[in-house]
Amino acid sequence: MTYSARHRDRYRAVATATTGAVAAVCLAGTGAVMGTAAAANAQSEHDKAAAKQRELNAQPMINEIARPTARVVKIKTVTKPGKGPSVRVVTSRNGSTRSSPAKAKPNPPATSSGS
Amino acid sequence: MTTTRTEQLRWQSLGTYVQLSVSHRDKLAAAEGRARALLAAVDWACSRFRDDSELNRVNAGAGTWVRVDPLLVAATVAAVEAAEHTDGIVHPLLGKVMIGLGYDRTFTELQPGRPQGARIEPPPLGAWRSIEWEAGAIRIPAGTALDLGATAKAWAGDLISRTIAEEEGVNVLLSLGGDVAIARGDRRPTWWPIAIREHPEGEASAEVALTWGGLATSSTLLRRWTVAGVTHHHLVDPRTGESARTPWRLVSATGPSATAANIATTAAVVLGDDAVRWLTEREVAARLVSEDGTVTLTSGWPEKGGDR
Fold it and tell me: How large is the ipTM?
């Protein structure tokens, strides 16, 4: 039996058709799975948002504007540990003293201790 | 040109001492009024020891959204940021662990020799990532409880000192239980002397001066209590759910704010042997005192004298 040009063309056509069909099925399957997942995710997000709204609606509203702290909470505090102010050591444990603040201290210093 | 502080007021709030100084004597009364009002608001929002606090409403509703005062939202955001900067070492969800260790009322109300409660497993180290918030509402994971004890005092100090500085145009120092917040409202800086002590009424082991930012001190010597013969302190390691086992008895640090400084000192105590590396990597000026009294300074903290 010989492998003719006709056989070759038929083989190519079958291979191409098979590959195309498999690709189409895969794409369709992937799309279907992704679509289902996206829909489920959207539904989940929607359910979570609805549950959140139900929980909040069950509680009395807070009139933020009337709060004495309304303006204060807009102050943003740096929380990241890092380089801070220049430190002057006034006294160390052994009693040595150097580089005191610009003028004599009229009051005792503030305290930083464990609390 | 520099100025010196004028007067210092002292009183008790948030279960600890408050010291307030301003650079202009005539503004002291107004500053005190503002500070007292804001401290009362912080106590109502953030206290774990008040049945009517906003924080306890959130804890009672763990797993659901709870409408709360924006002040608690802001304090919680600061606590979540603390966890982020320390990979959960400064953890805002240790409320149940604290109760399990016996710290279930204000420190002055804790009686010695209390019976052992049920041991509470700490939440996962990353549980803080599940805290959600929006303007005026918070949701914490089910089965957990907020405890802002590690950050709220310093955060409140920053908030109050900056408020007074902006409103009154003065330089302000506010020490809340040793977490010192300094804010500038006057263009002329004030060098504020600050004594570092192991006990609030004890002898100063060092005295430094700053013009802005924050200085915090964390100690394992204070806020100790005994339950069933076991002594605990308030700095809890979230990895174990127990009081941190650490070589440091006192850690002081500076930072761009009292909150940042306090996060650094708390993390340093909990990290123990790794603290110096952690602080140095972040350029935090710190002074650490070990159990035997040995003092270790990071590079930003001068041994004696001048600016760095």
Answer: 0.83
